[in-house]
Design a protein that fits this description.
- The structure is a single chain.
- By secondary structure, the chain is of the alpha+beta class.
- Helix content is 22%, strand content 36%.
- Strands 1, 4, 5, 6 and 7 form a 5-stranded mixed β-sheet that branches.
- The protein is globular, with a radius of gyration of 15 Å.
Length: 155
């Protein structure tokens, strides 16, 4: 049983604070790596997930990206940290939490796309001018900030 499952066993449905890390990466054409999540179906996000005990934020970002996409994120740089009311999430199972999101950019990705079907319905590089409309709510601010900083696109 993992950290989150153990924590939930102890606190039940109480609202908690969790730390997660995501990776923002592009291919050579400037398209952004996104994961179509299995839950909720049809939602898209940057690859990433929640930190395990003893893990650094960087290790979380690399591990989760590898698990969800089959790609290894290399050359991480801190982009921003997000917290507060906008990061409140209710998981598909009904568990409420606030997530402190540590967002990194990656210099490049290594490997070939091999999504884990338990975590990713698909993985794709999306044109920043034509992103899916269903970016998960907790990452919409990250996407807006990234597009604004990199492409001067205001979404």
């Amino acid at each position: 049983m993992g950290y989150i499952e153990n924590l939930r066993r102890l606190v039940g449905k109480e609202t908690v604070i969790l730390v997660g890390a995501i990776v923002i990466a592009e291919n050579d054409e400037g398209h952004i790596l996104l994961q179509e999540r299995t839950s909720p179906p049809g939602s898209w996000s940057f690859p990433g997930g929640l930190m395990e005990l003893g893990e650094s934020a960087e290790e979380t970002a690399v591990r989760e990206t590898l698990e969800e996409t089959g790609l290894r994120a290399v050359g991480l740089r801190l982009f921003n940290v997000y917290s507060g009311e906008d990061t409140f999430v209710v998981a598909p199972n009904g568990d409420p939490f606030y997530c402190v999101i540590v967002a990194y950019t990656a210099d490049h990705l290594e490997g070939i796309i091999q999504p884990d079907p338990n975590e990713s319905a698909s993985v794709a590089f999306s044109d920043p001018e034509a992103l899916p409309e269903t970016i998960v709510s907790g990452q919409q601010a990250v996407m807006k900030d990234y597009l604004r900083s990199k492409y001067s696109i205001d979404v």
